[in-house]
Design brief:
CATH superfamily of the largest domain: tm_1862 like domain
CATH architecture of the largest domain: Alpha-Beta Horseshoe
Bound molecules: 5'-deoxyadenosine, iron/sulfur cluster
Shape: globular
Distance between the termini: 43 Å
Largest sheet: 7 strands, mixed
Structural class: alpha/beta
Length: 482
């Protein structure tokens, strides 16, 4: 396992492909879909569910009875790809017993592995990249007529703005809403610009409409999703990099991320709003003021830093130094007192010395994140780092440094949670606690999981007040207040 975290949400690359199962009908045919990777990928599976739902597919939670099996894949680290390959081999075994079953690969692995999976290993019938899901019904028809089908073309415009996702999540309280696709930042370690293409933003009105629709269906929290949400820019459609070529009128009426946040916050004032992921170099104070001004925008920012060393940040092409990051952190605390922060950290990037590692630990001591996602560096094909930098930190050193970083984060998470003891928190109930049907679980505005005994009068989707009495490093424990 090379992905760890000590906070609220556990993402383990060996388990995270928890089946997202669709139940739509296609002339009596049954579809099964599993998703791996980030929240964007899970949101994409909901788009796929909608597109295939319109084409009449019926769901199954049972792989054995599926006519079409789709695997929505992730390329972010080698481990994620290995997990997907294992699953594909398992699917193939099922197909051996039922050759009429078709298998498709969607998402970030599609472009790179298409030839291998389709032609060499013959593991799949269908390969579809993240911008080609509208083509799925045609491609499935091709497959049904006995051909292999592939579409991995990346688009300049596609945002699936008009597709109303079929919600596949485990609760009917929180949902993801995509606002941008792709990424232009070109961090040297990252495969995303290659797998998901250049950055483009979605029409803000369709985002507001989707959030309103969710509210009317009982949802009480949305997370606006993008690889780099702070970079959101709507000027009538098209790639972000082409903004300068747009007409003066289009540029003058452009909608930036802070504008979008305010639009959504005002349109659905009783809906909690979160967003992910923020990029320090693109985060501006107007976003911080929007969070401070609107009570329904949550006091929580996921702000990956990746390293505490300015030298490593430079080779990562992160666009900011350690000092600039500290400056942003102090502006956050000034503008939004009580704002929780989480991070992503890469351990053992090429050239990382013991001194750089100490810089990472001291940056963590300075910020004291509420929680974090910590990863060993994994070289990804085509990236600048793979082409130009030697993966020269030995694995045992990566492992030791990762353990130190995880332990440090565990301590900070515990201290942050202990500081809430005695406070009364507003919690949105999401459902039963994992450990007991006698307890509810939900989150406070800071995105920390809160668990408390049921009283019998409340339901998922309710906002309640909970007095915090105890905690672990991952969870706050309390009792309901009247
Ligand atoms: N190796 C390890 N971790 C990576 N991430 C992205 N690319 C890599 C890589 N090549 C991590 C970053 C990012 C998170 C989604 O995954 O921390 O923020
Ligand atoms: Fe994985 Fe990145 Fe693709 Fe998300 S965008 S599925 S994290 S490779």
């Amino acid at each position: 396992m090379n992905q760890y975290h000590t906070g609220n949400k556990i993402i383990d690359e060996t388990k995270q492909g928890e089946a997202l199962v669709l139940e739509q009908m296609h002339g009596g045919k049954k579809l099964y879909i599993e998703s791996y990777g980030c929240q964007m990928n899970f949101a994409d599976s909901e788009v796929v569910a909608s597109i295939l739902g319109e084409n009449g597919f019926q769901t199954t939670r049972n792989l054995e009875e599926a006519d079409l099996v789709l695997l929505n894949t992730c390329s972010i680290r080698d481990k994620a790809e290995q997990t997907v390959r294992k699953r594909l081999k398992a699917f193939h075994q099922v197909k051996n017993a039922r050759p009429e079953m078709k298998i498709g690969v969607l998402g970030c692995m599609a472009e790179r592995v298409k030839d291998k999976l389709l032609d060499e290993e013959k593991l799949v019938d269908l390969v579809v990249g993240p911008d080609a899901y509208r083509d799925l019904p045609n491609l499935i028809e091709e497959v049904e007529s006995g051909q292999k089908a592939v579409n991995v073309i990346l688009s300049k415009e596609e945002t699936y703005a008009d597709v109303n996702p079929v919600r596949l999540g485990h609760n009917k309280v929180t949902a993801f809403v995509s606002i941008t696709r792709g990424c232009d930042n070109m961090c040297t370690f990252c495969v995303v610009p290659f797998t998901r293409g250049r950055e483009r933003s979605r029409d803000p009105q369709t985002i507001v409409d989707e959030c309103l629709g969710l509210y009317n269906n009982g949802y009480r929290e949305v997370t606006l999703l993008g690889q780099n949400v702070d970079s959101y820019l709507w000027y009538g459609g098209g790639l972000k990099k082409d903004f300068d070529k747009a007409s003066e009128v289009a540029r003058a009426s452009a909608v930036y991320f802070a504008d979008l946040l305010k639009m959504v916050a005002e349109a659905v004032p009783n809906m909690r709003i979160r967003f992910s992921t923020s990029n320090p170099q693109d985060m501006h104070d107007d976003v911080l003021y929007a969070i401070a001004d609107y009570p329904n925008i949550c006091n929580y920012i996921h702000l990956p830093v990746q390293s505490g060393s300015s030298k490593i940040l430079k080779t990562m092409n992160r666009g900011h130094t350690r000092e600039e990051y500290f400056d942003l952190i102090s502006r956050i605390h000034k503008i939004i007192p009580d704002c929780a922060l989480s991070h992503d950290m890469i351990i053992g990037f090429p050239g990382e010395t013991e001194e750089d590692h100490q810089d990472t630990l001291s940056l963590m001591d300075h910020v004291k994140y509420n929680y974090g996602f910590m990863f060993k560096y994994s070289e990804r094909p085509n990236t600048f780092a793979a082409r130009k930098l030697e993966d020269n930190v030995p694995d045992e050193i990566k492992t030791r440094r990762l353990t130190e970083v995880i332990n440090k984060q565990g301590g900070h998470s515990l201290v942050r949670n202990q500081s809430r003891i005695g406070m009364v928190e507003e919690v949105l109930i999401e459902g039963n606690s994992k450990r007991s049907d006698e307890h509810w679980s939900g989150r406070n505005t800071q995105n920390t999981m809160v668990v408390f005994p049921k009283s019998g009068d409340e339901n998922p989707g309710d906002f309640v007040r909970v007095k915090i009495e105890d905690c672990t490093s991952a969870t706050l424990l309390g009792t309901l207040q009247s």
